[in-house]
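Support request, priority: normal
Reporter: lab tech (M.K.)
Component: structure prediction queue

Hi team, I submitted a job for Deoxyfructose oxidoreductase from Paenibacillus marchantiophytorum yesterday, and the status page still shows it as pending. I've pasted the exact input below so you can check whether something in the sequence is tripping the parser. The sequence length should be 334 residues. Please let me know if I need to resubmit or if it's stuck on your end.
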Amino acid sequence: MTKLRWGILGCANIAIRACIPGIRQSQTGIVSAIASRSLQKSQEKAAELDIPKAYGSYEELIADPDIDAIYIPLPNHLHKEWTIRAVQAGKHVLCEKPAALTAVEVQEMVTASEQAGVQFAEAFMYRHHPRYDRIKAIIDSGEIGDVRGIHGAFTFSNPGDSKNVRYVREWGGGSAYDVGCYPLSAARLILGREPEAVTTHAFFSPEHDHVDMMMSGLVEFSGNVALTFDCGMWAGFRNTLEIVGAIGRIEVPSAFVTPTEESGHFIVQVGNERREEKVPFLNQYALQADDLAYAAWGEKAARFPASDAVLNMKLIDACLQSARERSRIVMNES
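Reply from support: The job had stalled in the queue. We restarted it manually and it finished. Here are the results:
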């Protein structure tokens, strides 16, 4: 079987511990090269991970004719530049979330990929897992009644890591970019429509370059439904989603991070009846890699079009604007 040959643009932890193993567990991909701005570092990682090629610059990897697709786990402010450079070199791109710093930037990336005739995808791995298809099927069946609300939380506590790129405002630091993007995208996925308005409140920490270390928000959708969410980088760990229906609810205890054999399951409760829905133990990073590969080969349409990244970024833009202005932001339908 033909394999999609991946190049890894950077040695970030997410690449080493999650995406590279995911590509290797996929049906379609192999990891052929890794690059760093330090040749020594890339050579060390290549040796450690048994990757055939190591490059001392991102440009060299992008120029390699034996690379078909690029995975970009760089700091957020570098996503736009290196995505555009990669797609213009004819490479398919899987870019870590958030795709960029604004919806305008993401649209430029999408346009560049379309002009180059290659695939561009934002790396929201969780939504490739079949448990979300099952959740949507349960909702569509009417078992929990009409959806009345969604509650999502993604928080962790790491304030002492002063050199973390998440705490540099100009680099796209902050909890909305880093973890808030997950419940925001999940609500859009589950409801199948875009929000109408957003109101948020955030704790902008002077100790952390005034990035949002905690954000809480209300996202209004049509049909009298809303998402309430919070996200944070200076709060106890949570990674949950709850979908409340007119007669029942669905609890997803481990909603976004890679599920283990046990943590991937979710709960459906209607009245006094409560059951655990068991889902297969699958690597969602592998499923994500396969989705891009099949789209790149023209075998299947991408499950999530590149335009979805623009729409999710519009929502993040609105959340940050609302928190800074302390105001309700009405979303532009365009």
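Residues 307-325 form the longest helix (19 residues). DSSP finds nine helices and 15 strands in the chain. Let us know if anything else looks off. Ticket resolved.
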